[in-house]
From TrEMBL, chains A, B:
The keyword Transcription applies. One of its GO terms (biological process) is regulation of secondary metabolite biosynthetic process. This is Ferric uptake regulation protein. InterPro entries: FUR, WH-like_DNA-bd_sf, WH_DNA-bd_sf. The lineage of its organism: Bacteria, Pseudomonadati, Pseudomonadota, Alphaproteobacteria, Hyphomicrobiales. It comes from Pseudaminobacter salicylatoxidans. Keywords: Cytoplasm, DNA-binding, Iron, Metal-binding, Repressor, Transcription, Transcription regulation, Zinc. Belongs to the Fur family. GO terms for cellular component: cytoplasm. Pfam families: FUR (PF01475).
Amino acid sequence: MDVNGAIEKRVREAGLRPTRQRIALASLLFAKGDRHLSAEELHEEAVAAGVPVSLATVYNSLHQFTEAGLLRILAVEGSKTYFDTNTSDHHHFFIEGENKVFDIDPGAVKVLNLPEPPEGLEIANVDIVVRLRPKRVR
Amino acid sequence: MDVNGAIEKRVREAGLRPTRQRIALASLLFAKGDRHLSAEELHEEAVAAGVPVSLATVYNSLHQFTEAGLLRILAVEGSKTYFDTNTSDHHHFFIEGENKVFDIDPGAVKVLNLPEPPEGLEIANVDIVVRLRPKRVR
DNA sequence: TTTTTTGCAAACGTTTTGCACACAT
DNA sequence: ATGTGTGCAAAACGTTTGCAAAAAA
């Protein structure tokens, strides 16, 4: 298949062996645009799709993909770790209570006057999380 | 004592009984300016200071102080929750690897063009985390 | 005395690890 | 054949909870 061929190439180019599990996970992750997933969610999707990976393998793969630059870890509070399939510079809305994350229109936000980092350190990246809550009715 | 009297007043005004443990923890937290601490770290400090609180009590107190508006929860990735004694609007540097947090000069940063939140939601707050890493030598 | 708080140990949910077996090369 | 990757179950980690004993009101 064409799509799976592309996914396989992508996995291989990340320096990882294109195993059945990794290809299945990568397909779920990268097939349909930007996604924000926890390991648990991806595991459920995989199982539902008829690919019975173990949760441990999902964690392994997510971290391997992250190291390879295919994913980004999302910095939101809460117990779960979220992985973002969009690795380019962009920021997030976070809905309190629901633990839902989605992208802020990338063109929109601008940060001004970022201070210089202390001696010997450089900026790895800038994460903006805009926390949202239900609007109060008044 | 004067300092402890002030701390006690602060705890009491938060609607909490000024117990030995809460006063000790509040002293450690609020005595010396802005701090960013995990529960574990505060627990160690307390024990080192000769106040053998239990870790459970540290967690309880931190959450009670947070509800009372004396602390803010810090949203940096990673497994640990950090509490910030500075509850005013400001942002953070985060040193990767070291899990260290410190404030960005509050006057400095400005965010432009924040998009409107979706219907029915309002912005609770905006958190900026500037992740730092050791500068590469070249 | 009544109510709140504490401390312990056990429970919890998420993530990581050790190791035998299976798979990709 | 060799080296990786996988799956399971167990361990680890930070955090929360239930409950009896202790302290504050």
